[in-house]
C-alpha cells in the first residue's frame, strides 16, 4: 500500500501540468539556437514539441527543405526538449548544428516547458492553439505525416 501511495504522489505533478482542451497555456520564455528569447503568446497558432531525438528528427525532416521563415510565417513554434543531452555535447555539437536549420528551435534545456505537454518521446506533439488556448492535440510519428499537416496551415 505504501508503494502505491508513493507512486500516486510522484505522478501528481504530471497531472497538474497536463493541458486539457480549452485551457489557456501558461506563458513561458525559452532561448532558441541563437540565444534569442522567444515568449509564447496568443499569436501562436500551433506548437510542435519534440521530447526525444527521434521526434526532433521528424521535425527536421519535415522542415529542412522549407523556406527560412516557413514555420514563423504560419505562427508555429517548435520546442525541443534537450534536458537529457549532456551539456558539453549540446554546447559543442548539437546547438551549433541547429544554427544551420532554416527554422527556430526553442531549446528547453531544463525540461521545464516540454514537461507540461506529455507525449511519446518518439513522436512529435502538435498542439493547435487559438488565442492562447489549446484547441486540439495530435501526435505524428513520420516526416510524411507532419509535412501533410504543415501543408494544411496557411500563413
Automatic annotation (TrEMBL):
Domain of life: Bacteria
Alphabetical UniProt keywords: Signal
Keyword Signal in annotation: yes
Upper classification of the organism: Bacteria, Pseudomonadati, Pseudomonadota, Gammaproteobacteria, Pseudomonadales
Signal peptide location: 1-18
UniProt name for this protein: FAD/FMN-containing dehydrogenase
Amino acid at each position: 500500500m505504501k508503494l502505491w501511495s508513493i507512486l500516486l504522489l510522484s505522478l501528481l505533478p504530471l497531472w497538474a501540468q497536463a493541458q486539457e482542451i480549452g485551457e489557456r497555456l501558461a506563458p513561458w520564455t525559452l532561448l532558441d539556437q541563437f540565444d534569442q528569447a522567444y515568449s509564447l503568446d496568443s499569436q501562436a497558432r500551433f506548437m510542435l514539441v519534440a521530447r526525444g531525438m527521434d521526434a526532433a528528427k521528424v521535425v527536421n525532416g519535415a522542415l529542412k527543405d522549407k523556406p527560412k521563415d516557413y514555420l514563423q510565417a504560419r505562427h508555429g513554434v517548435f520546442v525541443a526538449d534537450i534536458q537529457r543531452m549532456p551539456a558539453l555535447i549540446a554546447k559543442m555539437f548539437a546547438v551549433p548544428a541547429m544554427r544551420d536549420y532554416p527554422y527556430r528551435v526553442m531549446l528547453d534545456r531544463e525540461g521545464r516547458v516540454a514537461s507540461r505537454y506529455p507525449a511519446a518521446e518518439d513522436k512529435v506533439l502538435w498542439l493547435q492553439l487559438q488565442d492562447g488556448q489549446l484547441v486540439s492535440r495530435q501526435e505524428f510519428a513520420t516526416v510524411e505525416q507532419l509535412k501533410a499537416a504543415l501543408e494544411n496551415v496557411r500563413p
